[in-house]
Amino acid sequence: MTRLIWAFTMIIIAGALAFAFAQRDTFVYQTPFPVDSLDPAQAYDTASGVITENVFETLYDYVGESVTEFQPALATSWTASDAGDQFTFTLREGVSFHSGNAFTCADVEYTVKRMLVHNPSDSGVWFMAESFLPTQANANAYLGDDATDADYAEYWQWIDNAAVCADDFTITFNLIGPDPAFFTKMMSNVAAIVDRDHAIANGLWDGTEATWRDWVGVNLRDFALHNNPSGTGAYRLVDWDGSTAVLEAFDAYWDGVPPIRNVVYEIVEEQSTRLLAVQAGDADRIAVGDRATLAQIRGAPGVTIHEDPSWVSTTVGMIFFNHNINTTDNPDVGSGMLDGRGIPANFFDDADARKCFAYNFDQDAFIAQVLQGEGAKLTMGLPTGFLGYDPDLPMYNVDFEAALVHCEAAHGGAMWEQGFEFTATYNAGNTTRQAALEILKDNIEFMNPAFRMNVRALSWPDYLAFTDEGKGTMFALGWAPSYADSDYFVHPFYHSEGFYAGRTGINDPVMDDLINQARLTVDEAEREALYSQVGQRAYETMPMLPYPSPTTFIVTRDVIEGVYLNAMYSGQFLWKDISKR
After folding, report:
1. Helix H segments across 368-419?
2. Which residue among 6, 59, 237, 501 has the highest number of C-beta atoms inside a 10 angstrom radius?
């Protein structure tokens, strides 16, 4: 494990050298999660977000723990057209990048056009692209192999019109249509403002029409901003070796130099090692994988567990039913027929089959046994504090009498008479998802001795590939917000063109129409009502089953002050807001 000592300069020493306590001006965060990339247009994982949200900034930011209150950051004011398809921001003057370059409108314009040009398939640019373009995809994927120069020229015009500078400190964004989520999208990590001159000087896209096609869809991990970022944030990167990242306070930060001078993001895979480190003072914060582990450090001298009943996770976990299973070379469908030894492709396309399973899921047992009594049931696939979440909607819980009605009716009675056998999947190491499926397995097999549900784990890459091929029969996955708008959950979950549609085969025209209406109205009351209707429709048809969300917690040394939880931050809080006594 890499160890750190601090003198007049910072020195990183590999090996067994340890320091007794992290220095007062240093914040050491130990976590098992490696950072993927520090380029905002590429990074789409939480670990990368922990770093980028402190190195870069967006035009506006969240206020404290609130995901509905916003404050100026790199912009000082904004207006939107009545139609909701044009946004104009006045930018902050006197801001410097870590490189020393001055922040101007050209950097904002470049940031937006650059993300639309690159749009790597494994990045978060897709949700920004759909605001400016007629597609979520990059130019090559959208236009196809037979595209002409004229086709590319038209695509470029969309990109070129997306962001326009009126002067050095006024930017206008021209959307392809109304987008009520756009303002919050601009606070996501992918919209963090990059240093145009720094990027170009280090070999990135030069910002011109002449070269843009050479950069479409490139893997930005192969280029300079991946590990040499220049942002306007309170911290600048000193070193990142692919594992440990070291950062220091930016002395020219426009909002004042933060109290913590140095930050170390240290990869420590073994949880037991992290638990010892926070107790010894070698770590100021640690990642803890589950609430049950807290018993090992609760009450330990020098350790604080920050928790609050209102800190309900904004990650929504789902048990997904695949309505159109790809049965080709699929080991999880058995015989591929409804004959007691397998299931057919349309097994979960039957609403009674889905409800049979939904009424067999014991939500109370899940909260008590898996979440240690700290969790909240969900009526629909939305975090509880988001616009349109309706707590008054009915929800499914274990009810064997109701389950029996739907089990006997599924597939015209054939499911009950013939029985079935299939395998449900989860990603290896995720004990929460494993437990959700096993609770369902135990209860569904209790219903009928001819019902057989197996549960198996797949490695994360294999799991994503398997479900992406449409082979997952029933699988547990979750979705965490990149921006604080309900559309980021409702469309991916429930729409026939949403992110999960390829994995679930969902196709409900009524649901699609409700979601499309919500995407086009800027009236908040109308959107709220529409999302409530989505929740009602989801109850009636049960396309997928949300399981309870845990309350979250943060573990630090007791010398750390200013800790709060804002669910939109990958690190849950910004480092500039904390201090160390």
Report:
1. 400-409, 414-418
2. 59
Q: Which residues pair with 342 in a beta bridge?
A: 334
| 187: its two tokens | 């606070």
Question: Cα(533)–Cα(550) distance, rounded to whole angstroms?
Answer: 25
- The CATH homologous superfamily of the domain defined by 316-550: Dipeptide-binding Protein; Domain 3 (3.10.105.10)
CA distance 511 to 534: 6
Please give the model's pTM, rounded to 2 decimal places. Answer: 0.86
Helices and strands (DSSP H and E) totals, the chain: 18, 23
Q: Please report the beta strands in 290-427, taking only residues with DSSP state E, as ranges in sequence order.
A: 303-312, 316-321, 375-376, 420-427
Cα–Cα distance for residue pair 431/447, rounded to 1 Å: 25
Report the CATH fold assignment for 24-258+562-580: D-Maltodextrin-Binding Protein; domain 2 (3.40.190)
Contact status, residue 258 vs residue 235, Cβ threshold 8 Å = yes
- The CA-based angle 145-147-151, given to 5 degrees, is 155
- How far, in Å, are 314, 344, 351, 374 from residue 404 at the CA level? 33, 21, 14, 30
Same fold, 24-258+562-580 and 316-550: no
Distances from the Cα of 359 to the Cαs of 23, 356, 365, 540, in angstroms? 54, 6, 13, 13
Structure tokens at 160: 């070129």
Domain locations along the chain:
24-258+562-580, 316-550
> 372 phi and psi, to 5 degrees?
55, 35
Backbone torsions φ then ψ of 541, nearest 5 degrees: -105, -20
Measure CA 376 to chain center.
Answer: 19
Q: End-to-end alpha-carbon separation of the chain, Å?
A: 26
Torsion sign, CA atoms 268, 271, 277, 283: positive
Q: What is the pLDDT along the chain (581 residues), one digit of tens a residue?
A: 222 222 323 333 333 333 335 688 999 999 999 999 999 999 998 999 999 999 999 999 999 999 999 999 999 999 999 999 999 999 999 999 999 999 999 999 999 999 999 999 999 999 999 999 999 999 999 999 999 999 999 999 999 999 999 999 999 999 999 999 999 999 999 999 999 999 999 999 999 999 999 999 999 999 999 999 999 999 999 999 988 999 999 999 999 999 999 999 999 999 999 999 999 999 999 999 888 899 999 999 999 999 999 899 999 999 999 999 999 999 999 999 999 999 999 999 999 999 999 999 999 999 999 999 999 999 999 999 899 999 999 999 999 999 999 999 999 999 999 999 999 999 998 889 999 999 999 999 999 999 999 999 999 889 989 999 999 999 999 998 999 999 999 999 999 999 999 999 999 999 999 999 999 998 999 999 999 999 999 999 999 999 999 999 999 999 999 999 999 999 999 999 999 99
**CA–CA separation, 281 and 559 (whole Å):** 10
**Cβ proximity of 475 and 426 under 8 Å:** yes
DSSP 452-512: EEEEEEE-HHHHHHHHHTT--SEEEEEE--SSS-THHHHHHHHSTTSTTHHHH----HHHH
